[in-house]
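Tokens in:
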């Protein structure tokens, strides 16, 4: 089977990247969604190895130094996130449709090393909606919410760096658009 093209999904905090990615996987189980590593602690309900690979900062730094991260960044000026390189390369070589759900800094790094990837920006329908989603999910304290909103303004300004923008106004519609960008056949 020929190598598959990588799709990179990025966008600001609370835009619904995880929700859209989960919908893709639920509807298209043949899509492999990379599991990112992070130094942040798990949120309630998150499972190590499923939602993220939770690792200590010193181990994360070892992986970066060894070239084992396809991309990595310190996000929201607090925690490190990154994509382990080897599983991505293995799935692409096997022709498996591969999706990375990452932040802006990570997408920029992937563009440097894998310029043939399809870069998709997931945008909110409005700033007010993005802010409401962030505050409504209740997973961060007020200080962390403000930090994430500052970061979101920077991330929104980078939209033009992407191949295409999908507005996440309705999850199913956003998923359909992402599936089309990935070149997969919609289900009847």
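Residues out:
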């Amino acid at each position: 089977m020929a190598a598959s093209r990588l799709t990179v999904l990025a966008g600001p905090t609370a835009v619904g990247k995880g929700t859209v990615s989960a919908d893709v996987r639920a509807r298209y189980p043949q899509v492999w969604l990379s599991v990112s590593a992070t130094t942040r602690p798990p949120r309630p309900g998150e499972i190590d190895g499923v939602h993220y690979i939770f690792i200590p900062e010193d181990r994360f730094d070892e992986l970066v130094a060894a070239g084992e991260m396809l991309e990595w960044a310190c996000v929201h000026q607090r925690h490190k996130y990154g994509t382990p390189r080897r599983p991505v390369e293995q799935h692409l070589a096997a022709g498996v449709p591969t999706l990375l759900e990452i932040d802006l800094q990570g997408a920029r790094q992937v563009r440097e090393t894998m310029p043939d990837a399809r870069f998709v920006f997931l945008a909110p329908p409005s700033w007010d909606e993005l802010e409401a989603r962030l505050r409504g999910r209740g997973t961060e304290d007020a200080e962390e919410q403000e930090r994430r909103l500052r970061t979101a303004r920077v991330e929104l300004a980078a939209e033009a760096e992407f191949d295409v923008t999908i507005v996440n106004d309705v999850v199913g519609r956003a998923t359909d658009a992402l599936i089309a960008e990935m070149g997969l056949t919609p289900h009847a």
